[in-house]
């Protein structure tokens, strides 16, 4: 019921702010210790692990039956299963490569799904103090002020976000280059924040108009999905169909018209799904 979602929301907000303090302390360190995950450009630091632990320990202490899908837990062999049970989907630091370089665009991304439906979405960049929040049916906010997507319908008017991504797999990298080549001449501009979640938050806030990526995971987009939808935008599969949360593909846009025009133009990649 809504009383319990209120208490889930208050608790997660408090823990997210604590996580933000930790990230703010650690970002200043140069030459951070890091380990390689799936590729040379897919990294994990002690802070990713510490933030994930802080969030999972804090939430599971209060809500003993809740389940978790956490990026670093899954990377070290944890389960990746979304059931009807309340499930927190956590990326402790989205934009780890930025964090490693002390480039101040990283965030905690955390969402709560109940019956496989997103109820809470939070994206917090503590370096720039940007707190994006949404609850199902209640709109989306940046630091407590309502946000809304733009009304852009044309590619020629769109500020489009994309990413180089974290795998060096040639087919995927090629598609990134082809998409840049095809889109750069037709859109207003291309941007990249280095964090899937922050790109989605920027579409939600109307600062950019669309974003797509092949190779993301559910924890990169779980909070962004709710925040973009609550801000009036669309989140779909990059081929124009419905979003498939484990397909490792996402496209979000300010309007359905823009989403469809972008989907038709994309060179597509279909990574091995996560589940
Ligand atoms: C990555 C970032 C990056 C995107 C990758 C993600 P991580 O998340 O969001 O911008 O291109 O697809 O995996 O690894 O920093 O949490």
From TrEMBL:
Pfam families, sorted: Inositol_P (PF00459)
Matches recorded under CDD domains: IMPase
PROSITE patterns named in the record: IMP_1, IMP_2
GO terms (BP aspect): inositol metabolic process; phosphatidylinositol phosphate biosynthetic process; signal transduction
Catalytic activity, reaction form: a myo-inositol phosphate + H2O = myo-inositol + phosphate
Binding site for Mg(2+): 71, 91, 93-94, 220
Coiled-coil regions, chain positions: none
Highest taxon of the lineage: Eukaryota
Pathway(s) served: Polyol metabolism; myo-inositol biosynthesis; myo-inositol from D-glucose 6-phosphate: step 2/2
GO MF, any single term: inositol monophosphate 1-phosphatase activity
Entry cofactors: Mg(2+)
EC nos: 3.1.3.25
SUPFAM superfamilies xref list: Carbohydrate phosphatase
Keywords: Hydrolase, Magnesium, Metal-binding
Family in the record: Belongs to the inositol monophosphatase superfamily.
The protein's name in its UniProt record: Inositol-1-monophosphatase
Lineage: Eukaryota, Metazoa, Ecdysozoa, Arthropoda, Hexapoda
């Amino acid at each position: 019921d809504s009383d319990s979602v209120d208490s889930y929301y208050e608790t997660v907000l408090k823990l997210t702010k604590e996580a933000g303090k930790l990230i703010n302390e650690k970002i200043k360190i140069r030459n951070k210790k890091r380990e390689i995950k799936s590729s040379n450009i897919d990294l994990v630091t002690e802070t990713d692990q510490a933030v994930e632990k802080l969030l999972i320990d804090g939430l599971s202490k209060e809500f003993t039956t809740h389940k978790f899908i956490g990026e670093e837990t899954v990377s070290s062999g944890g389960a990746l299963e979304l059931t009807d049970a309340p499930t927190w989907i956590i990326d402790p630091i989205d934009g780890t490569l930025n964090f490693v370089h002390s480039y101040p665009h990283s965030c905690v991304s955390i969402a709560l799904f109940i019956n496989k439906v997103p109820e809470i979405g939070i994206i917090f960049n503590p370096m720039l103090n940007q707190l994006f929040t949404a609850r199902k049916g209640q709109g989306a906010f940046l630091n407590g002020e309502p946000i809304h997507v733009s009304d852009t319908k044309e590619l020629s008017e769109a500020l489009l976000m994309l990413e180089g991504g974290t795998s060096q797999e040639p087919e995927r990298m090629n598609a990134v280059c082809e998409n840049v080549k095809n889109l750069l001449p037709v859109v207003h501009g291309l941007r990249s924040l280095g964090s899937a979640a922050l790109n989605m938050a920027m579409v939600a806030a109307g600062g950019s108009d669309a974003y797509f990526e092949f190779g993301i995971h559910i924890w990169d987009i779980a909070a962004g999905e709710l925040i973009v939808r609550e801000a009036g935008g669309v989140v779909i599969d990059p081929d124009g169909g419905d979003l498939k949360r484990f397909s490792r593909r996402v496209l979000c846009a300010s309007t359905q018209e823009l989403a469809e025009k972008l989907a038709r133009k994309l060179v597509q990649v279909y990574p091995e799904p996560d589940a």
